[in-house]
Amino acid sequence: MKTCVAADFSKSGKWVDAGCGWTLQFICYRQPVSMHVIKVWLQKPNSDVDLNDPAFLDELLVKMKKEMRDKGLDDNIQLSWKKQPDGQVFHKEEEKRDEL
User: Fold this and answer.
1) Domain limits at 50?
2) Cα separation, 76 vs 57, whole angstroms
3) What does the alpha-carbon distance between residue 68 and residue 64 come to, in Å, rounded to a whole number?
4) Could you read off the pLDDT of 63-95 as tens digits, one per residue?
5) Rounded distance between C-alpha atoms, residue 61 and residue 53, angstroms
6) 93 falls within a domain
7) Domain total for the chain?
8) What three-state secondary structure class fits 12?
9) Rounded distance, CA 77 to CA 69, Å?
10) Matching InterPro entries, A to Z (predicted)?
11) What does the angle CA 58 – CA 59 – CA 65 come to, to the nearest 5 degrees?
12) With left for phi above 0 and alpha for psi between -120 and 50, is residue 96 left, alpha or beta?
C-alpha cells in the first residue's frame, strides 16, 4: 500500500493526503554540510620534497585525518586541498625584509 502526501500551502503548509498519481511540484531536502577552511604552513625538512606532488598531498591528508580522528573528531570528516588558480596547493612564502 502506497501512502502519498503533499504540503497544502492554503493550510500553512500542513501535510495532507494526496493521490500518488498526481503530478505536483516537489521540494528536495538534504542535511546542510558544514565546511571549514584551515590554512596550513609547512616547513620542508629537505629541498628534495615537492609539496605539490599528488602522492605527498594524499599521504599528508591521510595523516591529518588520523590525527583529527585521534583527537575525537567525527570519523566521516572529509579533507581536501584547495588548489589555487595556478593549480598548486602550496606556494613558497616570500621572505619578509625589514626596511630601515
Assistant:
1) 4-70
2) 19
3) 6
4) 999 999 999 988 788 899 999 999 999 988 776
5) 12
6) no
7) 1
8) coil
9) 9
10) C-type_lectin_CS (IPR018378), CTDL_fold (IPR016187)
11) 90
12) beta
